[in-house]
Amino acid sequence: MPSPYRALFAAPGSKGFAAAGLLGRMPLSMMGIGVVTMISQLTGRYGLAGALSATIALSAAAIGPQISRLVDQHGQRRVLRPATLAALVASAGLLLAAHFEWPDWTLFVCAAGIGSVPSLGAMIRARWAAVYRGTPQLHTAYSFESVVDEVCFIFGPIISIGLSTAWFPEAGPLLAACFLALGVFSLTAQRATEPEPHPRVRGADSGGSALRAAGLQVLVATFVATGAIFGAVDVVTVAFAEEQGHKGAASVVLALYAAGSCSAGVVFGLLRFRGAPARRWLLGICAMAVSMIPLLLVGNLTLLAVALFLAGLSIAPTMITTMSLIEEHVPRAKLTEGMTWVSTGLAVGVALGSSVAGWVIDAAGARAGYGVPVVAGAVAVAVGFLGYRRLSRPAPGRGGTVVEHHSEREERHVA
């Protein structure tokens, strides 16, 4: 890893919370696709599988901003531990309901409970900010977290799909729950690097939601469509691999999708840009949309893997630039909430994309399913162009050199 990245870990405690963050974020890429694989193996119903994955994402979208707001007020340890326990109990219930063939409604209730899982990416970034705020190292730290997220998306689907297909159907989601428990409880045990809580006070900058910012509204709306791309690609790729007679290979193909993003993120994190990030962001959205079109033309897994790797090259730079825009358009006291709202938009999009793709697959097959991310990409571009003026005008007092030099680096966890 380049020396600017290695130098981050000179700060006391940084290795510990970074490692905990890696473990705790693995479920981000494992749980949804693990549930899809598990349910499709046990029932053969991709529509149900996609709907359950969508339920998890929608629940996280509804609960995530509330958890982040409570973390800001009361601290990570006091909020993350009970939230994680609730998610773990719900995960156990989902696995039992699937294994023992309980009624479908029990699956959906448990899937909704999993939405209380906290956004570990935002928590780790908050710790980096507490260590390096106002320094060039924060720029590098955010870049590093982008790469970590993509590493999770490279290895998470491989592990989750691989275990569920080679061992037993519930194995992928089960391991995801174990990673969540280890990551969160390890992170919250590290008190020295935990950011100080700051209870909200009445005032012009603290009242109301961060979502009132016009620029943030554009970002969230665009990332609903972007999330639909991600959710649809995951579900359709599993189904396409099964149609090709190699369902387990879906994990490798999806890993290459994330590898493309990871590679671009490493390089992008070493660059310094001048000028407003809104133009780079819009270009990234367009690139993501165009990269979906070749998926309609692929006829085998090899070509699909190549197409997805190339499509992944536009993801991390776009997500990183998004975080720069959030810092321009959201008051600093609401920055964590602002990042969570973008993650919420992604989660809603993943829910819609995975659900719609599941029904399209059931009705017309996997090849037709790739039309879903193509349409979602077109919607993202349309919203991006319509809202570009809002993004090109930072909120009063939010633009400036600090943002330009250290904030272009975060990415999709989102959640």
Automatic annotation (TrEMBL):
The chain crosses the membrane at residues 16-40, 46-67, 79-99, 105-126, 214-240, 252-273, 280-297, 303-326, 338-361, 367-388. Residues 403-415 have a biased composition (Basic and acidic residues). SUPFAM superfamilies: MFS general substrate transporter. Its main location: membrane. It is a multi-pass membrane protein. The keyword Membrane applies. Pfam families: MFS_1. Keywords: Membrane, Transmembrane, Transmembrane helix. Residues 395-415 are annotated as: Disordered. It is found in: Cell membrane. It comes from the Bacteria. Residues 215-415 form the Major facilitator superfamily (MFS) profile domain. PANTHER family: MAJOR FACILITATOR SUPERFAMILY (MFS) PROFILE DOMAIN-CONTAINING PROTEIN (PTHR23542:SF1), PTHR23542. This is MFS family permease.
